[in-house]
TrEMBL record:
Name this polypeptide is given: ABC transporter substrate-binding protein
Source organism phylogeny: Bacteria, Pseudomonadati, Pseudomonadota, Alphaproteobacteria, Rhodobacterales
TM stretches of this protein: none
Record-annotated ABC-type glycine betaine transport system substrate-binding domain positions: 26-296
Organism in which the protein naturally occurs: Roseovarius phycicola
CDD domains in the cross-refs: PBP2_BCP_2
Alphabetically ordered keywords of this record: Signal
Signal peptide annotation: 1-22
InterPro entries given in the database record: ABC_Gly_betaine_transp_sub-bd (IPR007210)
One of the Pfam families matching this protein, by short name: OpuAC
């Protein structure tokens, strides 16, 4: 018992000094997707792994293609999986056991179509989606008239808005945004000039701290909203509201038991992400600097997570 206590004390001392030894000398590979919030989640995760002595490598990967790489072990984990935008590979990999879900990250997400409040004057009946049938021209652009223009996610994020438009026969033309930045720039430009805009978007996001936007309202779903089929005018639930999961390759827990314990314990909420995204996307500060600043200021929050990881390595 005395020896075990001495070992535990030594481990904790190493934690404080940042000198803890990792389970494996191989770096933990964390994918970087297309949006800033995920960059924050990934880099906080990686920073905490480094606090426990692990080597970390960040790898650029698409939000859907990453799942094949995680299932095969080429990437190790993902802290921010929006479960309503995962394609076919992810659920099959979870079912087969190649990908393990380690709980939710803690964010409270929402996805759907947003518009600026002044569009209520041009389209009476908003926020109900039903109003869009009667005032599509109010949202039209030169290249879509008489149909309204709907800005959707970038093409490699999937076709969910386009699918819903088709199912409910809404007189709108879906136009894929080039990137998150391009979508935000278009929203800012429209609001600055009072022009119409309807756009697929999500929260948490700094946009809602910077701009006044409202959400299109849908019919209540009978149970969970099913996007893929069964929607029609009068019975349109719009979009399944996601959970945000933490996932890892099936071998991660055995290869990196300490990091796995940290990953299971860690949690982030909307207020953290929104604040950090604002610093990065609006104030132009480097991601690494903003994340390091949060980590330095919030040791009381993350230290128990790292301690759990160190304990799992004994």
């Amino acid at each position: 018992m005395k020896a075990k206590s001495l070992i535990s004390a030594a481990v904790m001392a190493l934690a404080g000094s940042g000198m803890a030894l990792a389970d494996s000398s191989d770096p933990i590979k964390i994918p970087i997707n297309e949006w800033t919030g995920q960059h924050i989640s990934a880099h906080i995760t990686g920073t905490l792994f480094k606090k426990a002595g692990y080597e970390v490598e960040y790898v650029t990967a698409g939000a859907v293609p990453q799942f094949a790489a995680i299932a095969q072990g080429d990437l190790h984990l993902q802290p921010e999986v929006w479960t309503n935008n995962v394609g076919d590979i992810y659920p099959k990999a979870v079912e087969s056991g190649d990908i393990v879900v380690l709980g939710q990250l803690g964010l409270q997400p929402q996805e759907g179509w947003i518009f600026p409040p002044y569009m209520k004057e041009k389209c009476p009946g908003l926020p109900s989606y039903d109003a869009l049938y009667e005032c599509a021209e109010a949202f039209a652009a030169a290249d879509t008239f008489p149909k309204g223009r709907l800005i959707t996610y970038p093409a490699d994020w999937g076709t969910r808005s386009k699918d819903v438009v088709g199912m409910i026969e809404l007189p709108f033309e879906p136009v894929a945004g080039g990137s998150e930045g391009a979508m935000i720039a278009e929203a800012k430009s429209a609001v600055a000039t009072g022009d119409p805009i309807l756009m697929m978007f999500w929260q948490p996001h700094w946009l809602f701290a910077d701009m006044d936007m409202e959400w299109v309202a849908w019919d209540a779903a009978d149970g969970e909203c099913v996007e893929e089929s069964g929607q029609e005018r009068g019975k349109a639930c719009g979009f399944q509201q996601a959970t945000i999961d933490k996932i890892a390759n099936k071998n991660f827990a055995s290869d990196y038991p300490g990091a796995n314990a940290i990953f299971e314990a860690m949690s982030l909420d909307n207020s953290v992400q929104n604040a950090l995204m604002l610093e990065i996307d609006q104030k132009g500060r480097p991601l690494e600097e903003v994340v390091a600043e949060w980590v330095d200021a919030n040791e009381a929050t993350w230290k128990p997570w790292v301690d759990a990881g160190l304990a799992a390595k004994q």
